[in-house]
Amino acid sequence: MVPGAIARAYTSDETLIHLPPLAHASQMDFIHDRVVDIDLEQKCVYLASQPTTPIAFDVISLDIGSTSRNLDATPGARDFTIPTRPIDQLVTRLQQARNDMLRERTTTTSDQNVHDTAGEHAAQSILKNGNTETTNVSSDAVSSQQKQQSPRSLPSSQQQQHQQQPKHQRPKLVVVGAGAAGIELSMAITSTWRRDGLDPHPTPLLDAGSHLVPHETDLVRHKLAHVLADHHIQVQHNCQVHQVVSETEMVVSTSTVKDNEPVVRQERIPFTHCVWATGAGAHSLAWRLHQLRGLDVTEHGWIRVQSTLQSTSHPFVFAAGDCASIESSPKHGSLSPPAPPPKAGVYAVRAGPILIENLTKFLEQLQQEEQQEGEEQGGDSPNSNDATTKNNESVNGNKEDHDTKDSSLASYKPQDDFLKLLVCGDGKAIGFRFGIPFYGKWVFDMKDRIDSNFMNLFRVSQNDKNDDTKEEQEEPTKRSNDANNNNTKMKKKKPKYNTAQYDQQDVEYITTSSDPKKWMPPREAAHLIQREDDDVNFLQAWNVLRTMAEHDDYRQAVLKYYHKILTLDRRPNTPTTVGATATTSTATQSPQQQEEAQDQVLLERSIGQPQGTKEQDTTQARELMNA
């Protein structure tokens, strides 16, 4: 939602999850501080504000995200660019940059208006006085001043500079990194600046690779390149930033091939604002824990975890999201393990329920073991301090062996593909999945619904706040009794974890997804998701995409017609009456001709050609479908 906030589709507050009220509503302690070290032998966390008073733990989950890659490795990058992380600072700095430019523009325009008004007042005064001598003197003075300031009185080089100097400095944005973040931000920022009348220069988008979205199809890359060009984004491939020299210039090198020989060209790129969107880099805390505490990390600094999201070196350490790298076993019939999923928010979201479940099970197992030990010793169950001490003593013992191999913990299996949606900053978005692109206002509306539904999961309602206030006013004894009762209930009934909450599937989709008779016909669905007009119902298109994701046969059928439409669209223009002609002559047409005629009817409607009403078009298509 951050690019949407930059494009002013959302407020900054709407993109935030407010942790203090959420933690309070969930009966958790929230500590706003920075972790400087974690002692994995003594099982305690050290905070910046209290370095001598660590916090003890039995199990810990590291969800520390990532940093901007090469921000510190590239000279000048941290000092002179706007990094994408931390995200809240990104939004704030871009908003400040926009406000400064608008303020400067307003001030310049105001000064120009004052100058023009003063000249008009002087002329009106001369005319009103009717004094010929004054008029002549004033005219001579003005003429002399004009000669002194006239560009023609300057040297030729200065004349050209004076003529070309704009009234306002046109901003020039440069975006380093052409991943999803860089693509979204380049379009969102430039679209917003153009709406504000700032007239930015075309934006260079510096890509270290040779292709945008290299894991996508040529069809997707072609559409994305077209959309970027429409938004005045100039992609520069095989580009490496060597140094950001100042707040207005950087040194880059671009690799090309000429006569089968590599050619490296170095140049200086000027800018007024530079966004550093180079992708995810490992957090410094992960590197520190590896070097000082022996935590297992990859060569890039990502915390190695099993499919249960447990650290491969310390089973009581869990990690998920960008900071983790999942080490999976080879799939059936394969000799090599699958690559870890890319650093994308969808994988962190999907890992969340698995993480909650496994943390809960891990703690339950510890509690059961402590109770068994207490019963064997004939004493009471140990208190929390004793539990921590026993756990610390068993870190390197046999007790943790079963934790690594515990089959009761759930495994997270990342999906192979996911829906990618990129905001364009002008009320539209581009998306791709299944190797095909889709674009338009409906794509943004779909993304808005998905993002808003997810954020609503973490909104603390007023009812929750009232319940919290009421609970605080209760007697301590009653609260303690309630807590004991709740603990007893939790032991008897284990919670269920359902990832569907993160989908927020509406009732309409749940009703239609299980009934093939209610699915949109594949041919019509293919036309729908290719449309780019503003009249597309995003819920219908979204249902099509979700049904394609869940049902292989339906997906293949839609993709078949999708590519057929592209072939039809590239044909020479055909008469707009082809639909009506096809309707009256279906008896003499072959099945292939009927199918192509129906495709043409829907195609004409989807590209907006004048062909009767929507109801007539639908009737013609249905008649052909039934023929």
Number of helices: 22
Q: Find the count of extended strands (DSSP E, 2+ residues).
A: 20
Low-confidence stretches: 122-166, 387-405, 486-495, 574-584, 606-627
State the separation between the terminal residues, measured CA to CA: 46 Å
Estimate percent helicity.
40-55%
Question: How do the strands line up in the largest sheet?
Answer: 6-13-7-8-9
Radius of gyration: 32 Å
Structural class: alpha/beta
Coarse shape: globular
User: What summary fits the major beta sheet?
Assistant: 5 strands, parallel
Strand content: 5-15%
Q: Write down the overall mean pLDDT.
A: 78
Notable features of this structure?
627 residues; alpha/beta; five-stranded parallel sheet; 22 helices; 14% strand; disordered C terminus
